[in-house]
Automatic annotation (TrEMBL):
Name of the protein in question: Uncharacterized protein
Organism field: Streptomyces coelicoflavus
PROSITE patterns given in the database record: TONB_DEPENDENT_REC_1
Gene Ontology terms: biological process: carbohydrate metabolic process
Compositional bias of kind Basic and acidic residues: 757-770
Transmembrane regions listed in the UniProt entry: 697-717
Keywords: Membrane, Transmembrane, Transmembrane helix
Region named Disordered: 489-516, 730-807
Bias-annotated ranges (Acidic residues): 735-756
Length: 807
């Protein structure tokens, strides 16, 4: 009956007014008749009735504490509270006022949680108001209308006692026409940490300040020498622009003593934006225009982290839990984690000009089990950032132990405090929610420090990607803490090397203890299988390139991004990204291909078959091996065997043909397969299959053709001989005519029967026949092509003494 007890501190006038009105409304009721007759008893019963009626209308007015300054007051300070009260009921509230209430000291951290959970519950215990001069009055509160209040009170008038955490509440009291008496209609509880003097033992506090984002870059790059990067969208430009989330993180963080935790992928992406880049816009890409913003953000970050501790996560912040639970049995998955770790040195230091610490692994929400620790340390990290709600205390310690815990195998678990780490989750877009989060955080920090006189090292590991409002609340809380009296800042490396508490829990839980809510958001095994297939395709592609780095670097980083924590809870987007990487790689490797061939005809027993390789890449490819295989070697052989291989290299943007010698053993159709191979014997690209039709020439056909050629030769020779003889006879006839004209007229002619007639030559018998033919050809005109006789015309005179006669 907290409300009734609180009501006793008010004046008697409201109680009497309520008593009169109640009596008038329910006159004749025996109980209230007796009530009216007994003033003392009537007062107590009225107070009880007031409490019951107030409970029935709890929270009709919403109280919002938008500001509480200073968040942790000290001696001589004036506490100022401002906010709004809003009538959420249907009736106007009259005679209202906002008052301040200070409760007793809160002695446990769990009590802080309980009060925060029921911060606006009117049925919970309510402390009395402080002096009513520290209040603000309202004649009426109209339904749905918010009224602002601002109250200042010297901290000395709050009557705070010993150092510690106190409940601090702002309430709205008033009347309604249905309940015409003073009652608490709304309340908002928060906390006031009180440590005016420096603590004897300050808590060493490490706050992580994460610079992590989602995946923004595609595997695609431009064909130019600079390989212009391509971004999936323009979201990163929004984040680093003034007012954007990442811009606020840098602006707020530079004034804090924190350990920066960065994802190298974010740095590489922003660095890529400082030059020429393109952004996907549907099926095309457009030129990026935010180079100035990217340069400014990097310059601000470089200034902020100068001389500060920087912890670098593996490239693209791989999901260690998903890998441990679903990816270790997929070949190559752990190698991807190792590559993501190795690339850090070539990314962070060249951009930020500070050497990062790469000894830490950070699973999602600090949730660990034995398999996660094993995977986290496989890439070289020997410290794992866990959280106290995962590595829970089991020894009944009455205090929170230091963060560092040896968990075996030379590995240290750095256990962040769960309450402090989760203080800024949820919707903090309103000033009231942000203020309550800050005060709760400070209350938990001071409560932790007062648990024991032992000095401890505490780590705060907030959510990876806080929103702008969450970041602002975090920064406000850390500023107060770092300028306060009970805490001192410490770097993460120092916290991990602090002397462990011998009673702290060091046993890492088993896999079954991993939170089911987190397991539902993990990357499935299929994601790691798809990535492994893409890696195999990349391995086959890079060996044929003259400059593999143009492909290995962008695709290697894209494969790292496929394992990113940022895909948790976004399975469709993750699948789309993986499919896009594989499609683009297939498209590039497909630019080196065999040209399709149609059916080839082979006439004869041997011939050559050309096969063409086309290279549409901008760089040279090779050496490759081109193999031509006959599926029916008994009919068609390639180079005297079933198949033949030849090396080939092709310049960028060109095609090249390779000729294979073939031999046919029989007529018919034979199928031939052309396939490219890498030098290590792995098939490259798709094969090209075509048919070869063998039409062998038979022996009979060859004889017929040979006979025809012979006849043509003989006919030509006969014509040549006949023409030569005709020319000779024509010459002989001309000589005989000349001799006849020169004979002496008195000389007797020889007769056929004369014994003195000269002896005939031996060929005379054949001459009449030849001479009978000669006149017909002698008259033919001489052809220019006729050959000149190679012997002189024979003489018809008798041979002289001793003259030889040719036969």
């Amino acid at each position: 009956m907290a409300e009734a007890a609180d009501f006793q501190g008010t004046s008697a006038s409201p109680a009497r007014r309520w008593l009169r009105r109640t009596t008038a409304l329910i006159a004749g009721a025996p109980l209230l008749a007796g009530f009216a007759q007994l003033p003392a008893a009537g007062t107590a019963q009225a107070q009880n009735a007031t409490a019951a009626l107030a409970d029935s209308d709890s929270g009709s007015v919403a109280v919002a504490v938008d500001s509480l300054t200073p968040s942790a007051p000290t001696d001589g300070d004036t506490v100022t509270v401002s906010g709004t009260v809003t009538n959420r009921g249907k009736q106007t509230v009259t005679d209202a006022h906002v008052g301040l209430r200070v409760g007793p000291e809160i002695d446990t951290r769990s009590s802080v949680d309980a009060i925060a959970k029921d911060s606006d519950d009117l049925r919970s215990s309510i402390s009395p108001e402080i002096d009513n001069k520290y209040s603000e009055k309202f004649s009426k509160l109209t339904p749905g209308v918010a009224e602002h209040f601002n109250i200042s009170v010297p901290v000395d008038d709050l009557n705070l006692g010993d150092d510690g955490v106190y409940e601090f509440a702002v309430s709205l009291s008033g009347e309604t026409s249905a309940q015409p008496w003073q009652q608490i209609l709304g309340i908002q509880r928060t906390f006031l940490p009180w440590q005016p003097d420096g603590a004897d033992t300050k808590t060493k506090t490490t706050a992580l300040w994460p610079l992590v984002s989602t995946t923004h870059m595609a595997a695609e790059t431009g064909p130019n020498e600079e390989q212009t990067p391509v971004f999936l969208n323009d979201d990163l430009a929004k984040e680093i622009s003034p007012g954007g989330r990442l811009n606020q993180m840098v602006t707020l963080g530079k004034d804090l003593d924190v350990t920066w935790v960065v994802d190298p992928d974010l740095l590489a992406s922003v660095d890529a934006m400082t030059g020429s880049y393109r952004v996907r816009d549907g099926d095309k890409t457009v030129a990026g225009t935010h180079q100035t913003i990217a340069k400014q953000w990097l310059a601000d970050l470089q200034e902020a982290v100068a001389d500060e501790e920087v912890v670098a996560l593996p490239f693209a912040d791989p999901d260690l839990a998903s890998l441990a639970h679903n990816g270790t049995d997929v070949a190559g998955s752990l190698s991807q984690l190792k590559e993501a770790t190795d690339v850090v040195d070539n990314t962070v230091e060249p951009i930020l000009h500070v050497k990062p610490n790469t000894d830490f692994a950070w699973p999602v929400d600090g949730a660990v089990d034995r398999s996660i620790v094993k995977v986290a340390t496989s890439a070289g990290a020997d410290k794992v950032i866990a959280r106290s709600d995962s590595l829970q205390e089991s020894n009944g310690l009455p205090y929170t132990p230091s963060a560092a815990r040896p968990i075996g195998g030379g590995t240290t678990a750095v256990v962040a405090d769960a309450r402090l780490s989760t203080a800024f989750e949820g919707d903090l877009t309103t000033a009231s929610a942000s203020t309550l989060a800050v005060q709760r955080f400070l209350a938990q920090s001071l409560g932790l420090g007062q648990q024991t006189d032992k000095q401890r090292s505490v780590v705060i590991a907030p959510q990876r990607t806080p929103t702008g409002s969450q970041a602002r609340a975090m920064a406000e809380a850390l500023r107060t803490l770092q300028s306060g009296t009970w805490s001192q800042s410490q770097k993460l490396a120092a916290a991990s090397e602090a002397k462990p508490d011998p009673d702290a829990a060091t046993k890492v839980p088993g896999t079954s203890s991993y939170p089911s809510a987190l397991r539902k958001k993990e990357l499935p095994r299929a994601a790691f299988v798809e990535s492994a297939r893409t890696q195999d395709a990349l391995d086959s592609f890079k060996v044929v390139l003259s400059d593999p780095s143009r492909v290995v670097t962008p695709f290697g980083r894209a494969l790292n991004r496929e394992m990113s924590v940022s895909w948790r809870g976004r399975p469709a987007e993750a699948e789309s990204f993986r499919a896009g990487v594989k499609k683009y790689l297939d498209g590039l490797s497909g630019r080196v291909r065999l040209i399709d061939k149609s059916e080839t005809k082979l006439s004869g027993r041997s011939a050559t078959i050309p096969v063409t390789v086309q290279n549409n890449l901008v760089q040279d490819v090779g050496p490759l091996v081109l193999r031509l295989t006959s599926t029916n070697p008994t009919r068609l052989e390639i180079g005297g065997a079933r198949y033949k291989e030849q090396p080939i290299s092709v310049s960028g943007g060109h095609s090249q043909s390779v000729k294979f010698t073939t031999s046919a053993n029989a007529n018919g159709r034979a199928t031939v397969i052309a396939q490219l191979y890498t030098t290590d014997g792995r098939p490259y690209g798709k094969p090209v299959t075509f048919d070869v039709k063998v039409t062998e020439i038979t022996a009979t056909v060859m004889l017929v053709i040979g006979g025809g050629v012979l006849l043509l030769v003989l006919a030509g020779f006969r014509m040549y001989t006949q023409r030569k003889r005709a020319a000779a006879r024509a010459a002989e006839k001309a000589d005989e005519t000349d001799e006849s004209d020169e004979t002496d007229p008195g000389e007797p002619e020889a007769t056929e029967n004369s014994d003195d007639a000269p002896e005939k030559p031996e060929d005379a018998e054949a001459r009449p026949t030849q001479e009978s033919e000669a006149p017909a050809r002698a008259a033919d005109p001489e052809q220019p092509s006729d050959p000149t006789p190679d012997t002189a015309a024979e003489s018809a005179d008798p041979s002289g003494t001793g003259e030889r006669v040719d036969r």
